Amino acid sequence: MSYLLLLLVLVLPGAESYSLFCASGPPQSAKSAVITFNTSDLPLRLNTATIEDSLFVSWLDYSISNDSAEEIREFNLRVFVFNSTGELVTVKESFRATNIAPAAKLRDRARIDEEVGKQGTIVVAVSKVVGTSRVWQVDTAGLEAAIRKRVERGPESTVKVTFEPNLIITEGDKAKIFELSLLDILNDKEKSKRLLGMPQLIVISDSVDFPLPRLPKKELVALTYPDIQAAADQVERIVYLKYEPLNVKGSRVVARIALRDAVTR
User: At CA 41, angle to CA 95 and CA 110, rounded to 5?
Assistant: First the structure.
């Protein structure tokens, strides 16, 4: 019998290496208990968790409850693996996008891309929660320190949790942010150099799902990429705009309009 294993590892510059979790597949061996660590100021509470090893991977089964009055839309889990001498040997990070209604419970499974069930003590905690109105973020250094104390049977310590409003972006908001970002480009001589001499501003149509704003000195049109390429074939080169998806970070929104080139084939 042959097996195909797909491992995905995310390495952030200047940070630890975290293996990502995937959810699927059956377990093969006996389960071991996992310590659940709950931070009091978070809306989510871990109830139980177990882990089992299976052919170079481990499966984490857990139950989690929403103790808040609002719907939870996503959350992060962090798993700490200690060896038999109490040394922290690895940390696993998991992002889970799912809706948990107020006062509801979720049972779920996550795959860890190595066998960790027999290494020693394993602790799982929630490190971030995104609800409909706010985002809760745990101080990760404080979380690790508190979990070390738990494993060492030391005194309990408080983990700091910060939160900020979670913005809900409407179609009208997206259109206005696009207009303001575009005007910023047009009013900046350096940024607008590549657009000089163009009677129209072309935006690729699959990046905008709202009516285009009217600009004071430029006509703005939305075209598909095949139409953009066909136009470039006639004039050698066309610069077009692509409105990147908005990056919402709590109460902040990061918007980006990219300038792209289409050249004659």
Answer: 25
Q: Where are the alpha helices (DSSP H) in the chain?
A: 140-151, 171-186, 225-235
Q: CA–CA separation, 7 vs 19, rounded Å?
A: 8
- Specify the pLDDT at position 199: 75
**How far is Cα 144 from Cα 148, in angstroms, rounded to an integer?**
6
* Measured distance CA(101)–CA(107) in Å, rounded: 13
Gyration radius of the chain's alpha carbons: 24
3-class state of residue 130 by DSSP: strand
Mind listing the pLDDT tens digit for each residue in 197-212?
A: 777 888 988 888 888 8
Sign of the CA dihedral 163, 164, 170, 174?
A: negative
pTM for this model (two decimals): 0.58
Q: Which two tokens stand for residue 20?
A: 């990502």
